[in-house]
Amino acid sequence: MEHPPTDPASMQAAAHLDREREIFAELQTRLPGIYSAFGDRSAQQTVLIIPSLSLDAEVLAKISGVHHYEERLLCLLILLRLPRVNIVFVTSQPIHDSIIDYYLHLLPGIPSKHARKRLTLLNCHDASPAPLTQKILERPRLLEQIRRSIVNPSLSHITCFNATPLERALSVALDLPLYACDPDRIHYGSKSHGREIFRAAGVDIPDGIEHLHDEGQLVKALAEVKIRNPDLRRVVIKLNEGFSGEGNALFEYDPDEAPEGREELEGWIAAELSSRIRFEAGDMTWDVYLEKLGEMGGIVECWIEGQEKCSPSVQCRIDPLGKVSIISTHDQVLGGPSGQIYLGCTFPADERYRFDIQEAGLKIGRVLKEKGVLGVWGVDFVSVKSGDQWTHYAIEINLRKGGTTFPFLALQFLTDGAYDAESGVYRLPSGQPRCYYASDNLQKPRYKGLSPDDLVDIMVFHQLHFDSTAQQGVVFHLMGALSEFGKFGVTCIGEDPEQAENLYRKTMRILDQETSQEAAVFQPGR
In sequence order, what are the residues at sequence separation of 6 or more whose Cβ sits closer than 8 angstroms to the Cβ of residue 312? Predict the structure, then answer.
């Protein structure tokens, strides 16, 4: 049981936090009116975009080019197609003008000059690994610049990548509501609390144990799941706040060495754990992993075996009016040592099971709504086919904008279509379907040195860029990571899944050709 602080400094800090929570709760009462007005083309309002990855810095550091991930929210610049919407976009470092121009030229039916006048770009000139939101809060002059840039504050709001106490503090400092989950409820998105939500929703989960915080608890949990499942070959260990699978690890039991008795099994696991564990993050160490387990907690979960197995996800929304709705379904493309790292996705999910995961998403959404959760969130599954039946095991709730959020937003804003949950198909206003193949992790050493302009030149020459007339083609993102890290992302939009995937493969083939040794002197099409 926690005891209230008694020293003056702690009491003052606690009172300040209580007051901040009260102000934040009052600000959030504006959201229903703001949400209702957002589709009104005559409503003048500002969207303040804070693409801060307010997550564990050491876990984020394992992701190549992670400081460029703030660029993923540039897809929201397409909101400027609404003629009276203003956007203030804040980043850690300046974004190259050619990247901004690229997004503004994607706007359908809006001259880029008109859109550019309604866009304010601000930055901290700070490349440190600290979360962007923290950097903003530490800069009073930047806060004042943001305040002066907000047009019609009564209909304006903040949107972000994920919501933490930092984003709540920023919301209060700027007197703007935050369209995201209340930071006091973000624990429902942890691996441990997520399993509790799944149980309450009546959704299948892998056997496992949650709320682990040290090596001793981890050893006992690994022994317990093995005793409950004698044929178990391997388990996944997950940090509660892991990101894109980077906080996951695999532990395999040796059937010839692992004893059967509980005490003997625990002793064997304790002796073998540090040498047998296999981390998804390539440069993770056992000591660092244990430290992170102590800080954030974690779970163990039985590895789901199966010959036909896939990893779909469902994206949902709990809006400020209280409605739970399905936004999209995806099949995730995974990689890494044991296939747990998010690489990309295809949209929509396979028609054989997309309605099953939609139904599960709605069940989970009703429980989250009761808990007071707000905004866009997603659920990842591991799905296994046995005979003619699929079983879907819910494995993670993401109470943030995830890897599947950005490509869908790009499709939606570029084409003005809508996802029909009844058919599981996204359709343009003309009724034509659209699908996509998307990835955040296109990375090769040979791509290093290419500028964003080089990339656009290549794709325009080969007619792979997004065609607003045909409403299909390739949309790029993470272009700022290209020259230094040889890394970027794409969303390849087509009429059907096959066309979208073919467009992706064609994009990769052309880029490889253009960056071959024979084309060392860059000339598109050489």
Answer: 329, 330, 331, 332, 349, 350, 353, 354, 357, 380, 381, 383, 392
Residue among 114, 194, 139, 136 at smallest CA distance from 360: 194
Evaluate whether 342 touches 403 at the Cβ level (below 8 Å).
Answer: yes
Helices 215-228 and 286-296, interaxial angle, to 10°?
A: 90
Mapped onto helix, strand or coil, the DSSP state of residue 99 is helix
Task: Tell me, yes or no, whether 293 and 344 share the same domain.
Answer: no
What is the reported pLDDT for 281?
79
Q: Which amino acid is it at 135?
A: K
Q: What is the mean pLDDT of the chain?
A: 90
Residues 167 and 214 in one domain: no
Residue 468 lies in a domain: yes
Q: What would the pLDDT profile of 228-244 be if each residue is shown by its tens digit?
A: 999 999 999 999 987 66
Other CB atoms within a 10 A radius of the CB of residue 15 amount to 11
- The DSSP letter of residue 415 is H
Q: Report the alpha-carbon distance of residue 473 to residue 417 in Å, rounded.
A: 16
**Residues 356, 488 share a domain:** yes
- Sequence-distant (6+) residues with CB within 8 A of 205 are 195, 198, 199, 301, 393, 394, 395
Lowest mean pLDDT across 64-68, 131-135, 424-428, 449-453:
64-68
How far apart (Å, rounded) are the C-alpha atoms in residues 74 and 231?
Answer: 48
**Residue 85 domain boundaries:** 8-180
Number of domains in the chain: 3
pLDDT at 57 over 80: no
Phi, psi of 257 (to 5 degrees): -110, -30
Task: Give the model's pLDDT for residue 333.
Answer: 84
Residues 364 and 463 in one domain: yes
Same domain, 348 and 494: yes
**Whole-number pLDDT of residue 462:** 92
Top-confidence residue, 55 or 126: 126
Of the chain, the percentage scoring pLDDT greater than 90 comes to: 73
CA 345 to chain CA centroid, nearest Å? 12
**Whether residues 212 and 169 fall in one domain:** no
Indicate if 14 and 75 belong to the same structural domain. yes
CATH code assigned at 428: 3.30.470.20
